[in-house]
Amino acid sequence: MNARTVTLEIPDDVRDAIQETVDRTGRDFTSVAGEMLSEAVKMQRVPGIVFADGASGRRARVAGTGIEVFEVIRAYRSVNEDWANLRESYHWLSEGQLRAALAYARAFPGEIEQRLRDDEYWTPERIWEQYPFTRPRPR
Questions:
Q1: How far is CA 14 from the centre of its chain?
Q2: pLDDT of residue 3
Q3: Domain, as residue range, for 73
Q4: CA–CA distances in Å: residue 20 to residues 8, 29, 34, 87, 133
Q5: Domains in the chain: how many in total?
């Protein structure tokens, strides 16, 4: 990641909110503020996307759902990028919600591709090999 030092005046209430996250997570102020700014830019660029904590960090999700963007993209690819089939697969989501997920994937393809690769890597078998205590016991 490229970074550049800048001087930025932050309102006290915003600084306090960032500091609360720093105190809660033990991360440094710069990385927390940078993450928050990055997410704000992404949400402004692609309305309908929010960020939430996941098992391995913060993830882009379709607003109003718990569905991560990568899940929609994986489903879209599994139906050969057929819009009608995607709509059928996620019939409870609005057209706007689905289009937001697709727009986010187009705007930030590297992030989505990495998440898809990570998801393919962690098969149940690989998890059980790495963490044997998670394997279900035979009945």
A1: 23
A2: 79
A3: 66-123
A4: 19, 10, 15, 40, 35
A5: 1
